[in-house]
Inverse folding.
């Protein structure tokens, strides 16, 4: 947990004053920069001390063996693991022969600032060497949103008090040593030095390129750097390379108050097909373009890109600066993870760490895309087109499993199933309906018919085919889906998981509808009327279990007859439960890792009455331990919907601080993108009550007691819409685009540009707050007395 | 499949004329000799050619890592694997400097005979070397039932036609090279050369000892040999050793018709605690005792031991010599696997191969023990005392799983769980009730109160405690057991598996009863009246699902609502299904690998009406593919019970030929002990209709149309009972012991010594034969025209 009080609640920055080596790895994740293609962890310029070094290229992976004590048919034999590629962040500094290392000498000042509007990470250091020479070091780092292959660093050294001889070694280093990622020696071996050197070349006065490939996955990458050096006195610049190291050395002497400035341009590229020469030239060209733009140009482009984003994605949270800051941080990190991914995945941790081997899960479609669809829909489309590009692999996987259509992987980098535990991997078929749902949401929000014709329809059709073959009609005519795992990972291989069945039902109906509207394209996919009719049949007959005695939906067949977990006997140090109890025990009892039926009520709200939602929420709340970071936001959204505003606010704060406060104690391995998305969801879908069903967008806003005012903007069908909520009323403004029909707490109205509407919010009846399992209440991270707000 | 027609249907022998190298490995399993402590595969004396070399000591294992692609709490990190120990079978022969190797020169005759009454494997060979020298080689091998640590070989060479110089190298060889057992290099590494040399010593004129230990499991073993040499002319005998090889070389010249005879005595011992010196002396003493007894003495003891066994275990099957031979082979192999195991396990493959890593499963208690209990009850008691000796490990395992009592391992050598796939390992909790059931059966058949006090009671108590903590009362007061795997391995993690619940119910009741009858001993185990009452409660409230619409018992909750496997679309080459379809797909459909509910009807027949048995049998028969060798016998027993005698006979022949015909294509890795037990069960419990409930033994005999007469003997409460059945009547004879109440087709009568009873068998109404899945009918291996009977 990050317990120091050094992040200030700046509305547009994450500012760290001082440096706590205990949480260095966590801050490396929080200060990571990325554009969705290149990811740089917030490692210190000088390389050491380091938590976890990290430089990533989206989609660039090595294969690792997946071993099994007892194998089985269809088990994947190898997985894909994101690897740490050539590190171009390094700028080692020597001051009068002493290495600049904050573990030695005296650190007079250390500040880092992640600027959410500038898109930069700045650092200011004042340091005194063990020999007494004082220097100011400052750096600004960016990964360009506008030039996809480019990152850049402006690095300055100033001598303080006395003249100093200064040497800066700017490096590219491949195969940095990492701590072994697992206990399995074969896996460690495969990932220890994943890059095989192919080419290294230096061209004075400061341009170096390294080309490597991976041995197992057969991917090739190139990294290159170039430098601009400004020095007040004579300066020497030399370059040298060896297979895994490129080094440009800058040597000068600084009088007191004088500064050496180095701008380092970095370019990265990778390919599974392009030749060594082609890649080398590609990064050289990117470098040239970056130099042409120049440092100031890159900075300006970056800010312009972000200005446009923030104009669409504005979010204001009056009354809780921590939540406001967290919401903006979350949006920024989601953009970083996706902006230029361009038909690559959005991994669960973005490009901020190697957690989960860099894999993408359902997190992308179910948690991250709903945010991007309403704030940066072009980016959302890229992700769905990436899924579409993996259809051939998903079809193969379906065939291997004896199914029709396409079976998307539970976890992957490039499309192949990488899950080594099928009950919580392959069996989690809901991911297919989750992808289809994201297609629907995207289409409802954008009406992007080109996307539908080129990718969306085929995704809907192939997933519908999967469901049709996965389920069957029983002897009473009900359509059942057996032996699958729903969202809650403390259950597995259930029959008729309500979430799965409802999402599959939506998938089947939507595919049938889409086929009707795109007859020619559907024919090209081999869909005839009979097939579409069979989807409608299955959707209509879908079995949704219900426990009439309790008046609640069981998570799946028989769930409410299972023994309830003994929460009283569970000690706080036994959470997360899966690290302290066998799956055997978790699966057979009523205990939820994360929202399952409650998520179904969010995503398929149309399938439940309000009273069912209230009863179901009250039933599952005391059973859900939130060992998954995905859960709090969903529980919060439903809490808001059923009128539990205070509880919703508690979940909002827990979600907001998940990474900034390292509440799950694993932020070091990368940020939790889905949980970050949850901050926005809790504000917009929770407090804002935003829902979109069959193209009808609506809001049911209510500000929880802890907040004064909430404002947010969404993009919808070519419009920009702003919603502002206070305790008594909501103000709707259409900032651009044609008039739009909206719902406000179920009441329909039409909104036009330049005529905002202010509508009263109906009061809530008093109600009893449901309880959570003992010790698993939302974390009480309410604002502290001095505006600082991190748990202590 | 063994398709050659070279095994003849000798009533008391398995005789092989000729040698088919294609099935060499299979015959090594079939011709294996063992006494339950030492196991020698039927490898050729000269060592090569060889299918799989094998010398085993019961309980002597090495650890192997159990790797997981994704680990989980409570997963075992290492398994135990039976290893191939020092090979003492080797007698290499050189004839005029040419090695005796049947792959070279000319083989004029080759015959091997496993004699089921003598307990020996004899071999007669007439061979002509490439240079034209002809020799007769004969050997007789035994593993002594009476001297547990001893095996012996009598080896003779006779020169034919011309004089021959003959050299025999009699060896002990440790760490013989084996084919890699798995694709996992770490596992292969751990098991490649498992024995670490500690001591090797030779003492002329032919005594050698080797001592080794294992690196991981820390077990120590010693192997020693001594020789008697009889030669007509001058003979040289010399001995030499190196760490992994002991060699005694015998050199002589034979005139035509002259014979060299070598008797090789072998002694084996192992221990986890005894010192090198102690073990070395232990095997030396065993050797000395064997020499003292002499070859003829060992042969006589062996036959006397087996005469006594066959007197108790007589079985005669008129009308089908193949089945008769197979039944005796089966009994012999079960005796070999268990006779001198003495508080070690009875592995699933006995000591005939390394299949399943040499592990014991529920096979021992559920399939093998019922045979031993009625034919060699002293041996059965040893097995149960072995289980009892592992209670401390089973208690630990229960604690690790969060349960009370003891959780016995799904697969093990020394008691620790070695299953690396928990849904079909740890979750198969029924093994605990299976062990308890074996305790009950043993007690009903023997009334062995000393066993009950010393071991049986504690086994019942600790397993009852497990069930009590594993299940729970639901809100309607029913006792439910969720998330467990029953016998059928094509289902997993079911709720209220009928087999499991019925066996647990019996376990709980029996434990409560036993506590009542052994108050003092129960107190010592900490059981009070309240605890026993809670077991009775759970047993009384046990939930047994039933599908009233279909009138059948679902295998588990909801089973009859699952999709039925598409048998029509399944090709013959796709069996066994688990090698061609994912578990995901198998688990979620109605398809059984092996009898589950049908086994419940055999073992808990009291819980079903006759009509329920008929309906259930008819329901499950078309769903059961018998991909497990355990299934045919159970299906056959129930077929006989419900009156499907023709089908029972078909299953009898399939079971009888499972190993002798290599029907599952894996006999090379060892015999299927449970299937062998099934031959006896099908004859005695199936055709004989033998059942024992609450101490009441009864029979409902019926000879299937293919047989003329069936006779068998069983031991029961100090009596020897013989039952003879023909098509119309059954004859009961009490050969020794006090009068006994018996049931004949439900009719009670009293049998006394010297007054046999002949009773008529009620006729069967005609009925419709149920079908099996397409292509999975019982194998039609009816007798061929010339008395040969193996499938072709």
């Amino acid at each position: 947990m990050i317990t120091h009080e050094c992040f200030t609640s700046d509305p547009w920055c994450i500012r760290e004053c001082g440096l706590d080596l205990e949480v260095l790895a966590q801050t490396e994740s929080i200060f990571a920069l990325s554009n969705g293609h290149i990811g740089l962890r917030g490692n210190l310029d000088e390389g050491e001390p380091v938590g976890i070094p990290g430089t990533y290229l989206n989609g660039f992976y090595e294969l690792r063996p997946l071993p099994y004590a007892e194998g089985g048919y269809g088990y994947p034999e190898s997985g894909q693991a994101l690897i740490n590629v050539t590190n171009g962040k390094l700028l080692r500094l020597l001051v009068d022969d002493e290495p600049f290392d904050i573990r030695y000498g005296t650190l007079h000042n250390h500040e880092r600032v992640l600027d959410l509007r500038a898109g930069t990470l700045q650092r200011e250091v004042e340091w005194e060497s063990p020999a007494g020479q004082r220097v100011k070091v400052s750096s600004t780092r960016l990964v360009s949103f506008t030039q996809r292959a480019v990152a850049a660093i402006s690095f300055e050294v100033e001598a303080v008090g006395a003249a100093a001889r200064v040497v800066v070694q700017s490096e590219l280093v491949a195969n940095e040593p990492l701590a072994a990622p697992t206990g399995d020696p074969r896996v460690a071996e495969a990932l220890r030095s994943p890059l095989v050197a192919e080419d290294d070349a230096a061209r004075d006065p400061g341009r170096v390129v390294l080309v490597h490939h991976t041995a197992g996955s057969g991917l090739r990458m190139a990294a290159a750097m170039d430098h601009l050096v400004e020095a007040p006195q004579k300066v020497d610049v030399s370059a040298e390379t060896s297979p895994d190291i490129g080094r440009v050395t800058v040597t000068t002497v600084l009088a007191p108050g004088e500064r050496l400035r180095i701008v380092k341009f970095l370019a990265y590229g990778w390919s599974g097909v392009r030749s060594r020469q082609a890649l080398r030239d590609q990064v050289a060209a990117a470098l040239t373009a970056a130099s042409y733009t120049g440092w100031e140009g890159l900075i300006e482009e970056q800010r312009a890109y972000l200005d446009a984003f923030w104009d669409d994605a504005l979010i204001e949270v009056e009354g809780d600066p921590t939540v406001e800051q967290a919401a903006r941080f979350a949006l920024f990190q989601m953009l970083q993870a996706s902006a230029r991914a361009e038909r690559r995945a959005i991994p669960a941790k973005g490009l901020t760490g190697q957690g989960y081997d860099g894999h993408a899960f359902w997190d992308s479609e179910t948690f991250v895309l709903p945010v991007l669809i309403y704030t940066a829909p072009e980016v959302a489309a890229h992700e769905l087109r990436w899924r579409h590009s993996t259809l051939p692999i998903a079809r193969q996987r379906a065939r291997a499993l004896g199914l029709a259509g396409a079976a998307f992987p539970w976890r992957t980098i490039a499309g192949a199933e990488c899950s080594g535990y099928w009950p919580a991997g392959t069996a989690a078929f809901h991911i297919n309906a989750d992808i289809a749902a994201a297609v629907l949401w995207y289409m409802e929000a954008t009406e992007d018919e080109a996307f539908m014709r080129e990718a969306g329809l085929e995704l809907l059709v192939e997933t519908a085919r999967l469901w049709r073959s996965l389920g069957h009609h029983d002897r009473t005519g009900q359509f059942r889906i057996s032996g699958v795992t729903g969202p809650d990972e403390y259950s597995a291989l259930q029959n008729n998981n309500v979430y799965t069945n409802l999402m599959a039902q939506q998938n089947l109906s939507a595919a049938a509808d889409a086929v009707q509207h795109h007859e020619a394209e559907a024919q090209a996919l081999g869909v005839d009327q009979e097939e579409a009719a069979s989807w409608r049949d299955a959707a209509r007959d879908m079995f949704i279990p219900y426990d009439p005695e309790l008046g609640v939906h069981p998570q799946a067949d028989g769930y409410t007859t299972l023994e309830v977990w003994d929460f009283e006997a569970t000690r706080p140090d036994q959470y997360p439960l899966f690290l302290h109890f066998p799956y055997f025990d978790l699966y057979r009892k009523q205990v939820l890792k994360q929202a399952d039926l409650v998520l179904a009520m969010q995503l398929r709200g149309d399938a439940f009455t309000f009273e069912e939602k209230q009863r179901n929420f009250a039933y599952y709340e005391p059973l859900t331990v939130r060992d998954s970071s995905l859960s709090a936001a969903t529980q919060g959204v439903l809490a808001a919907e059923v009128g539990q505003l205070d509880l919703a606010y508690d979940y909002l704060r827990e979600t907001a601080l998940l990474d900034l406060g390292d509440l799950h104690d694993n932020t070091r391995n990368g940020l939790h993108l889905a949980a970050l998305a949850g901050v926005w969801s809790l504000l917009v879908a929770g407090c804002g009550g935003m829902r979109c069903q069959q193209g009808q967008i609506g809001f049911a806003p209510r500000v929880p007691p802890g907040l004064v005012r909430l404002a947010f903007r969404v993009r919808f069908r070519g419009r920009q819409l702003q919603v502002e909520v206070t305790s008594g009323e909501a103000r709707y403004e259409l900032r651009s685009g044609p008039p739009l029909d909206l719902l406000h707490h179920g009441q329909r109205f039409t909104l036009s540009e330049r005529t905002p509407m202010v509508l009263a919010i109906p009061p809530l009846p008093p109600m009893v707050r449901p309880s959570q399992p003992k010790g698993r209440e939302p974390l009480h991270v309410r604002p502290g007395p001095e505006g600082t707000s991190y748990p202590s």
In short: Chain B touches chain A through 51 residues (CB under 8 Å).
